[in-house]
Amino acid sequence: MSPKEASSGAKGGVSGRFTPARIIVIVIAILAVVFIFENTRHVKVRLLIPEVTMPLYLSFLAMFVIGVLCGWFLFRRRAR
C-alpha cells in the first residue's frame, strides 16, 4: 500500500478542507468583518470628482468585496 492510499482513509478528504492556510484566511476574514462593522461613523469619501458622505463601514465593506473579487479572479486564472 502506498502512502497516498494509506492517507486517503475513511474521512474522505475532510482533513484537507481545513489546512492551516485556510484557517488563517478565515480568521483574517472574520477580523476584517468585525473591524468593518465596528467603524460606523459617517465620513466623506471622494472618488475622482463626486464626494459622498457615507458610513465608514460601507466603504470598508466595498473595499473588502473588491479585494475578495480580485483575489478570486487571480486564483481562478492561476489554476488554469
Write a structural description.
- 60% of the residues lie in helices and 12% in strands.
- With 80 residues, the chain is an alpha+beta fold.
- Strands 1-2 form a two-stranded antiparallel sheet.
- The longest helix is centred in the C-terminal third of the chain and has 24 residues, at 56-79.
- The radius of gyration is 20 Å and the shape is flat.
- The two termini are 32 Å apart.
Please render the helix and strand layout as text.
Elements: H1 3-7, H2 20-38, E1 42-46, E2 51-55, H3 56-79
Antiparallel strand pairs: 1-2
Helix pairs in contact: 2-3
Short description:
The protein is built from three helices and two strands. Strand 1 (42-46) and strand 2 form a beta hairpin.
The general outline is: flat
Structural class: alpha+beta
Instruction: Note the main sheet.
Output: 2 strands, antiparallel
Overall pLDDT, averaged?
79
